[in-house]
């Protein structure tokens, strides 16, 4: 059974109030006030001094359990929202893997599910390990991005992206956080590049996410009452408030406290929220929790995972 | 959440009327609409109010009326007309 053996998160200390982003992002005063009042955004994290490779390296070196076990890492899977992030032939992932002593591992990137690609990476890592004959084989999942263009920094009327990264050591037999189920719904009709009306996507967003959440919970043999905590994607607060009404799930059990201080950290939200939950003692041994993400852009992906801590 | 119709008898009627008045004015401006907006009008299907413009409407109501709306308990799927939204706001808001 796929398990998360260790998680490391890097969130830059440098934070910018959203009011200071109005000019660079071309936001009106009304748009900024809406983001603060209803979307719950306050400050966005950036790290102007660190490159993408630096972000990935910082997260990966934070996993103490990796040291001395590098030879057991068979796969490195990088879940990322943006398809292209550096000019060819540079490859920050290969660069970092070489530095970490992971040059031998099968290394690749998944971007097809945009901000849900982090969960896809965990799922793929688990499936690869399940089919790997090597004893004690491990996989390293990486997430992290630079918010380097206006398109990469702003989801109009919805969210503002920040910078951060996470690394996650995955095993097939670990005891810490075991994956009980994974549900995913890929909706190609919501392809922004094909001009699909945004309003229909907005209208179907919550029902579609609610459906995969219910499916993930049912596939785990549970009901929503069994879910101790939801670790959301940090798209915004009002979406989760309304989703909770739809699910009849208490919003107090959704960990939204990172939304005002992080912004939406692409695929790293899930891991950053996991770390915060651990630090605050919100997860006890045996607790079942749900992680949810939505990827939008070249089609939309709604995804949810249930774990047992 | 209590159904809007059931709440009609319990909300502050004067506040509700002020919400309707401000909402009508704001909606006309946001939707660039010359014809008057009435309580029975369907926000999405009839007036074409998008979810993002819906949030802008709520913010303008909060700022115009000096209230804070309890959005946490607000299910937009159950508040389909101008009158239903006004009833909800009158029953689920407090002075700012």
Walk me through what this model shows.
- The complex is a heterodimer of chains A (309) and B (96).
- Chain A is α/β, with parallel strands linked by helices.
- Chain A has 2 domains: 3-171, Peroxisomal Thiolase, Chain A, domain 1 (3-Layer(aba) Sandwich); 178-308, Thiolase/Chalcone synthase (Peroxisomal Thiolase, Chain A, domain 1), CATH 3.40.47.
- Chain A has 10 helices and 12 strands.
- Chain A has an 8-stranded mixed β-sheet with strand order 5-4-6-9-1-10-12-11, sandwiched between helices. A two-stranded antiparallel ribbon of chain A has the order 2-3. Chain A has a two-stranded antiparallel sheet with strand order 7-8.
- The longest helix of chain A has 22 residues, at 198-219.
- The mean pLDDT of chain A is 95.
- Chain B is mainly alpha-helical and 96 residues long.
- Helix content of chain B is 49%, strand content 6%.
- Chain B has 4 helices and 2 strands.
- Chain B has a two-stranded antiparallel ribbon.
- In chain B, helix 2 packs across helix 3 and helix 2 packs across helix 4.
- The two termini of chain B are 22 Å apart.
- Classes of the chains: A alpha/beta (309), B mainly alpha (96).
- Chains A and B meet through helix 2, helix 7 and helix 8 of A and helix 3 of B.
């Amino acid at each position: 059974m796929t398990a998360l053996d260790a998680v490391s998160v890097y969130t830059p200390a440098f934070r910018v109030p959203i009011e200071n982003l109005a000019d660079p992002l071309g936001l009106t005063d009304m748009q900024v006030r809406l983001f603060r009042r209803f979307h719950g955004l306050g400050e966005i994290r950036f790290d102007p001094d660190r490159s993408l490779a630096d972000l990935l390296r910082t997260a990966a070196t934070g996993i103490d359990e990796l040291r001395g076990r590098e030879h057991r890492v068979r796969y490195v899977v990088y879940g990322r929202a943006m398809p292209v992030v550096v000019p060819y032939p540079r490859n920050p992932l290969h660069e970092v893997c070489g530095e970490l002593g992971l040059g031998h591992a099968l290394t690749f990137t998944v971007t097809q599910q945009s901000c849900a690609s982090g969960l896809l990476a965990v799922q793929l890592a688990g499936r690869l390990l399940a089919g790997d004959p090597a004893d004690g084989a491990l996989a390293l999942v990486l997430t992290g991005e630079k918010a380097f263009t206006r398109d990469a920094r702003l989801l109009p009327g919805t969210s503002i992206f920040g910078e951060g990264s996470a690394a996650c050591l995955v095993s097939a037999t670990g005891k810490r956080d075991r994956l009980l189920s994974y549900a995913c719904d890929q909706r190609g009709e919501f392809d922004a590049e094909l001009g699909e009306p945004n309003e229909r996507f907005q209208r179907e967003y919550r029902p579609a996410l609610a459906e995969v959440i219910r499916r993930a919970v049912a596939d785990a043999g549970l009901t929503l009452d069994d879910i101790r905590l939801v670790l959301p994607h940090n798209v915004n607060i009002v979406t989760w408030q309304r989703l909770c009404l739809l699910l009849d799930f208490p919003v107090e059990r959704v960990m939204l406290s990172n939304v005002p201080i992080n912004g939406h950290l692409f695929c790293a939200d899930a891991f950053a929220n996991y770390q915060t939950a651990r630090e605050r003692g919100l997860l006890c041994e045996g607790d079942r929790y749900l992680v949810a993400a939505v990827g939008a852009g070249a089609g939309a992906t709604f995804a949810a995972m249930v774990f047992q801590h | 959440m209590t159904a809007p119709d059931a709440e009609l008898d319990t909300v502050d009627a004067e506040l509700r009327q002020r919400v309707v008045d401000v909402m009508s004015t704001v909606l006309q401006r946001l939707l660039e609409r010359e014809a008057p907006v009435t309580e029975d009008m369907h926000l999405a299907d009839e007036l074409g109010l998008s979810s993002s413009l819906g949030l802008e409407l709520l913010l303008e109501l909060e700022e115009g009326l000096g209230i804070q709306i309890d959005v946490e308990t607000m299910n937009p799927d159950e508040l389909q007309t101008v009158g239903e939204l006004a009833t909800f706001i009158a029953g689920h808001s407090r002075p700012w």
